[in-house]
Amino acid sequence: MTVGSHSFDTTGVLGLSREGGTAVDRAFPAWATLPADQDLATGRRWHFLFAWLLVINGAVYLLYGLFSGQLRRRLIPDGDQIRDFAGSVKEHLLLRFPEGEEAKRYNVIQKLTYLVVVLGLLPAMVLAGLAMSPGVDAAWPWLPELFGGRQSARSIHFIAAGLLVLFVVVHVLLVLVSGLVNNMRGMLTGWFSLGRPEKETVR
Amino acid sequence: MILHRRKLLTAGAGLAGTALLGGCDRFAGTETGRRTLKVGEDANLFVQRLLMSPATLAREYPAAMISPWFKPNGTIDPPDRDFRALAAKKFADFKLTVDGLVQTPLSLSLADLRGLPARTQITRHDCVEGWSCIGQWSGVPLAELLTRAGLKPQARYAVFHCADTLEYAGGGLEGGDGASLWRPEHPGSVRDGMIQLAAAEDWGGAPPKADKGTDDKGTDDKGTDDWGQGAPEPEAPEDKRTPIRYYESIDLFDAVNPQTILAYDLNGKPLPVSNGAPLRLRVERQLGYKQAKYVMRVELVDSLAGFGQGSGGYWEDRGYEWYAGI
Q1: Which domain holds residue A15?
Q2: Domains contained in chain B, number
Q3: Least reliable range by pLDDT among A78-87, A182-191, B135-144, B177-186
Q4: Same domain, residue pair B188 and B243
Q5: ipTM here
Q6: What are B's interface residues with A at a Cβ cutoff of 8 A?
Q7: Fewer CB within 10 A of the terminal residue: chain A, N end or C end?
């Protein structure tokens, strides 16, 4: 690949990949795709199986989150957080993370990102995916119209999926750098250390 | 030191990822894996049928939205000798057979079919590969034929037998000296493969050498009306290989839908061979591979087990979903 005057070797990442020892011309590398070889039929089957898991889990999550008030309580930024938005950006850039009482709630960037993912990207991706279905389009003719047609829905489906991958990468990186052991323990057992100053543990 | 550890971690993560995905591939290859992967299709069928009635129509578009070129895909020029003989006479000798679990089997010429009540619809064709195309189709509603033939109570599926050979049993489509085996993977690869083979080799049930000159027009993918070309060579030696021809099937839920037609016109003109002349199935609530081209026979059956590998269609036998509503 050549960008301007620079040349990069993208073998195994973009364009060229190995399938059982033979180099093949393809967009995504074999190690990152399921199935590894280019097999649209099997790829579709994996896709729809996990699409249903996503839709069922997502529906339960959204319904519970909306009706229990958890989404509002946890994800809408508090007034003081919005006022200190710039401060939160700075902390993120310096990879400094809140400790003490402040660590009990999501920070403002976290909240806004989760809102975009939970109420924006995921529903948009699922609906745009459905808008590509001739069956769903027959039953719900308004759906493809919402996206400006099947091909626009297709673009939105892939853009939303790409942004979700970006979210997962950044999210996991931040979990790692903000204290992997403490974060994992918090998620699995509910015990979460608030950090050095208070030397306190909350349930 | 740090660098080494980083390299090690990166390599480890890469290996773990590959191992996980590789495990998925191995799982997909087992019988349990195949059954598990089919759950998504079953759910698609079940839920979409809840959202629709047999009469639910796909959206129809205004004439201004018709695509300037309707992309032919899959087979674009059947290599089969019998088909070429029909095409050479502009399908004057063509007869559509409707048989199987019906009271009165039918045999209808194109003129007969054009004399029956017709339906014209401007609909969007959605390919499994992602692209779409809008075209105007005219043809006989399948329900009209089924009413005339009279369904027996056991009939559950309509199977569409097509004229085009895609490969030979046990051997893919062979290039001239048999050196290169070619297996279709998706509709676009059939089209590309046929264009390549047509330009170079004997590519199927057509008489091997005498036909070569006319075969070269397989590279013509402009969707023009190409009737009457590719005349067969009568003295060609008989082909002993077993051809695997395209076929498709739908159930009665889709068969009785008013938009399910056997189309003989595309955009107000006789259907070009590249788009499926003389007759092409339209099942507007499903993907493109269900829209069988070169339909010769409609057979009503109670089970799909006896056809191909039993999955209900050429692509279905190669892993694609029978229910292609998404």
Answers
A1: 1-38
A2: 2
A3: B177-186
A4: yes
A5: 0.83
A6: 14, 17-18, 21-22, 24-25, 28, 36-41, 43-44, 48, 51-52, 56-59, 124, 126, 128-132, 185-186, 284-287, 315, 318-321, 325-326
A7: C
